[in-house]
Amino acid sequence: MVSEAEQIRAAMRGGLDGMVFSDHDRLVDRKHLAELNHRYAPFRIFTGIEVSLAGEHVLVIGIHDPALESCIWGYNDLHRFVRRHKGFLALAHPFRYRDISVDIEKYPPDAIEVFSPNTPVWAEKKIRQIAASIGCELLSNSDSHNSQMIGKYYNVVEGSPADDGELLQSLRKRNLKYCYERSSLPRF
Fold it and tell me: DSSP letter at 163?
């Protein structure tokens, strides 16, 4: 497990301006997040969580509600919750273990991860087709279980968001640019 400080330093070394902490089924305490933002300013750390569902992982950005940590979510209910709270929802590393097992046509995410250390390269074309058919963005995320991947997969948003609200505004503009190092793509 990589410490928060190691993740932040790796992101800074990689030339990033900020990152979303999205632990599995756990939010970072708001007070602690504020302390990290103060300590590493002008680098920014934003609110996120990777919610584990039966068969899928879903990134939720911009909502700091302990209900997200409950581990009892169905995708449809999570989608409604995120929409009601005006957050951002992204399908993480699709096809890593199996075909997409949630109804993204009826409940489309805001984005789908196309590049990450855990997204199979063979699925790129399929992911692009799905994203185009449902009208969602593509993301490239480091899924930073180790600091060596941080900065190799990232997204560029419009402006310089200073807080979660501004990040959500930038994400909603649907003007994301995903970036990755081809040499870092997984081979499975």
Answer: S
Length of the chain: 188
Query: In whole angstroms, what is the distance from residue 33 CA to residue 45 CA?
Result: 7
Q: Model confidence over 36-67: pLDDT tens digits? A: 999 999 999 999 999 999 889 999 999 999 99
Q: What percent of the chain has pLDDT over 70?
A: 95
Burial of 71 (0-12, 13-18, 19+ CB in 10 A): exposed
147 versus 137: the higher-pLDDT residue is 137
Is residue 21 within 8 A of residue 46, CB to CB? The reply is yes
CA distance 144 to 147: 6
Tokens of 49: 């969580």
Token couple for 93: 């590393």
Residue 188 has pLDDT above 50, yes or no: no
pLDDT at 97 > cutoff 80: yes
Domains parsed from the chain with CATH numbers: 4-184 (3.20.20.140)
User: Which residue is it, tokens 């970072």?
Assistant: 28
* Structure-block tokens of residue 34: 């504020």
DSSP 8-state assignment for residue 41: T
146 CB neighbour count, 10 Å cutoff: 14
Check if the beta carbon of residue 120 is closer than 8 Å to that of residue 188. Answer: yes
pLDDT tens for each residue of 172-181: 988 889 988 7
